Each structure stands twice: as structure tokens, then as C-alpha cells.
Amino acid sequence: MLLKHMLNQLDPLDLAFQALADPSRRAIVERLTQGPASVSELARPLAMTFPAVMQHLAVLEGAHLVRSQKVGRVRTCRIDASALGRAEAWLNTQRAEWERRFDRLEAYLTELKPHGDDDDSRK
Amino acid sequence: MLLKHMLNQLDPLDLAFQALADPSRRAIVERLTQGPASVSELARPLAMTFPAVMQHLAVLEGAHLVRSQKVGRVRTCRIDASALGRAEAWLNTQRAEWERRFDRLEAYLTELKPHGDDDDSRK
DNA sequence: CAATCACTAAAGCAATTGCTTTTCTAATGG
DNA sequence: CCATTAGAAAAGCAATTGCTTTAGTGATTG
């Protein structure tokens, strides 16, 4: 029961969604879609200490939502659109699947009762 | 510092992404896009106790990703597409924004150096 | 009506999270 | 060269998470 825990989080979607669950991290992502930024620039608008921002950044990098490279003493961060795209794709699939089923159901009901009556057993 | 913690998670996106960060909960969502199901049906394929599944369901309902109603002794769950859509929309916006900026940059580079040379400082 | 079934409530617990403070290293600017 | 700047590493801590077990409450069935 602890082995399973340690070997967990193999699925990239776990990491991506987990990373995006935090508003500070989403703010960082939103900032980076406007273009690259240093860690200091990312930290400035966030009401927390510098190390805290670094840790958020580590989470985002671990989820492959952000890449970064250090030149001189400044680390420049940019978004990595691939992980963003995979999360988006999963949601897209789920909604598409739901709508497909919904449409099938609607078609079935229309066929069953072809005149305009959308009422079901009320209360 | 603990008040802020308690009043946290006001943003629906926090709840949605947090809920989707767990593979069991995503499995539940995937199952429900195929159509409604009882708690027992949802629990069957998941290698965990019944109460654990109920707790996952509570998280999903809290995030408005799932709705449910009890009739007799069985609770029937269905997905709530609206929260799914809002998460999808956020990701969509971010990718769109990123692509917009990317295209602007590309156009700038093409204008700057109009002949077919896509090389940058290598190594 | 008694046993079972589907679900609920609650307590407990190890692991993880989201910070903090402190300390350190290395690049840069005057 | 010395002070500042940008980032890194680590330890500590309260709160949260993802389970578990145990002990219920009502519907439903034989």
C-alpha cells in the first residue's frame, strides 16, 4: 500500500492536472503564454517568497508544462505547449464522447415520440 | 496564513483540475461519459473500498464535474459537462494565446530575414 | 420479518502539498 | 574587489489528500 503510492503519478495527465490545480501555477502559465520570463519576473506579482515560486516552477517543469534554461545567473522560463495540449485533448475527448452519447439518446427519444413533447415524469 | 488557507479554493478551476488530477477520478469521468451509473457500478472496476469511491465522487461533485440523485437506495451519477467545458476553455485560451504570440514572433522573424533561413545560434 | 444490499458517516493514519525561514553559490555591476 | 542580484538547496511545519476500518441507516428481497 505504500509501494503503490511511491510508484504513483506515472500518468502525465496526473502531473499536468495536478500542476494546473493551483492558481499561482496557472497564473505563471498565463504569464508565460505572453512570452518567456525569468524566475524573478514570474515571482514579482505573486504574493509569496521566492523559494515558493521556485517550487511551483519545479512542479510545472515536472509536468512538462514549462521548460527553462539558465544563462549566466538568470533562468528563463517558457511554456511547453505539448503537455498543455495533452490535457486539452483528454478534456476534448471526454466532452466529445459525452456529446456523442447525448446526441444518440436525443435521436432515440425523437424516434420514439416524434411529436414535440419533451416532458418526463414530473416529481 | 491559515485564514487564507481555509478560504482558499474559491476558483472553480482549482476544484476541476484538482479533481481531474487523480486517475481513479478520471476513470470515473470516462465511465460516466458513456452514460449514467450507480455508485456500485462505478466502484466495481476500481481497486479500492466502497467508501473510497464515495469520497472520490464527493470530490467530483464538489467540482461540479458530476451530478447525482438518489432514488430508492441507489444513487445514480451522471457527468456535468459545464465544469468540464470551463476547464477545457481555460486550456483552449492558453494555447490560443501562446499560438497567437508564436505566430507574431514568426512573422517578425520572417520580416526581419525574408529568405528561407530558419537557423538560430546552434549549440 | 430477517437477511442482504446500496449507500453514508466518522475516525484514523501515512504521505503529500504549499508554504516558510535559513543558508549557500555564483554571476554581475560599480 | 566587494556588494548586490538571481537563483538553489534544505529543513521544518500546518493543512490536505487518499486511502483504510468500523459502524451505522434505510430500501429490497426471499
Written description of the protein model:
2 copies of one chain form a homodimer. Chain A has 123 residues and is mostly helical. Chain A has 2 domains: 2-80, Arc Repressor Mutant, subunit A, CATH 1.10.10; 83-113. The first copy, chain A, is 60% helix and 11% strand. Chain A contains 6 helices and 3 strands; from the N terminus they run αααβααββα. Chain A has a 3-stranded antiparallel beta sheet. In chain A, a hairpin with a 2-residue loop joins strand 2 (66-71) and strand 3 (74-79). In chain A, helix 2 (12-20) runs antiparallel to helix 5 and helix 2 (12-20) packs across helix 6 (81-112). The longest helix of chain A has 32 residues, at 81-112. Chain A is elongated and about 70 Å long. The termini of chain A are far apart. The model of chain A is unreliable at 1-7 and 116-123 (pLDDT under 50). The interface between A and B is medium-sized, with 30 and 30 residues. The structure holds a DNA duplex (30 and 30 nucleotides).
